Structure of UDP-galactopyranose mutase:
Amino acid sequence: MRADLVVVGSGFFGLTVAERAAAELGMDVVVVERRDHLGGNAFSEFEPATGIEVHRYGSHLFHTSNERVWRYANRFTAFTDYRHRVLSVVGDRVYPLPISLATICAYFGRMMSPAEARRLIAEQAAEQVDVGTLEGRAISLIGRPLYEAFVRGYTAKQWQTDPRELPGDVISRLPVRYTFDTRYFNDLYEGLPVDGYTAWLERMADHPRIEVRLGVDFFELDDSPVGTIPVVYTGPLDRYFGYTEGRLGWRTLDFELEIKSVADFQGAAVVNYADAEVPYTRIHEFRHFHPERDHYPDDRTVIMREYSRFAGPGDEPYYPINSPADRRMLARYRERAKAERGVLFGGRLGTYRYLDMHMAIGSALSMVDNRLRVPAQR
Ligand code: FDA
């Protein structure tokens, strides 16, 4: 293979490194991607029967407070003024999420001032509980009624485990907003790419010095570049080392796509289902991400039900489980990664960390600054 740099994986991390290495550092870059499309989990496609843009690996909302990342992203795409809001169905009622004054007033069935709501939640959170379990920790943060309505069933579905048997450190905080602001994100910048995610990702890869090889697994290359050409690896960390220290734990998701013969199925982009009896965790309805698109049909809509479970060996890894055993294993893999000459590990799979898109882009820009740029170019 002839290249100055090989990037494994074409998600936001890999493409940011490839784009900067080519455009700024003048390197010839080969990107190898196992899947038959670029973009990693942010990939989207226009569903052929309806023309509605579907995020194949779950809803992707772009948001950031990082000026540098925002400026960088805007080189490749303009953003709509979409602001994300989420609803949660509990029994036969529906409430805004994250928990806000709007949720609290609706749930307890009366108007409260911010101070009254704070007092009520503080009283309910004062219950004596074992904070070593997820249930106890959640109750100590938001009180039992809100925990039982919004957290218990949803968490049990996400983890296939009773929250009384999950460790408390699975949740660090459960933010409660004592205002009627029902926006999901607090970031300075938010929006969706006007022409869709794939157009954005393709523009990043569209450089004469970048060659993307789709459907190519790095571990099946005839001529491995390791040792001869620098490699940035964004695939699973444990796989790189042949799982010799064990398999890091992940949760995966199953998605069930359906075209409905109605203009609007649920009136919102994302609705969570909090009750344990409902088998799915969320329903996504993609038309609501782009109310500005006038070519969407008015007699059909695309929905996607989401189910959560532990990942088996052949499944897509989505969310790190991060159990104490995983953390010990990760420390051993990190030592080995540090000692691996000519290979840099990055991205959510390569570092075993959940990263939002803006975090993946930000850490890729830092890797280019700190690890790829030769001192003379600084
Ligand atoms: P990513 O996983 O995207 O890319 C890695 C690539 O490497 C993949 O394309 C994979 O096929 C490839 N690869 C792996 N092994 C390989 C091998 N051996 N050879 C060749 N290629 C290989 N973020 C956000 O900001 N807002 C949001 O709303 C969401 N929503 C969301 C939902 C769900 C369900 C998930 C799982 C994630 C999100 N994210 C998100 C996070 C977002 O998807 C994430 O930031 C990016 O995927 C990170 O990009 P990476 O490049 O690190 O990984």
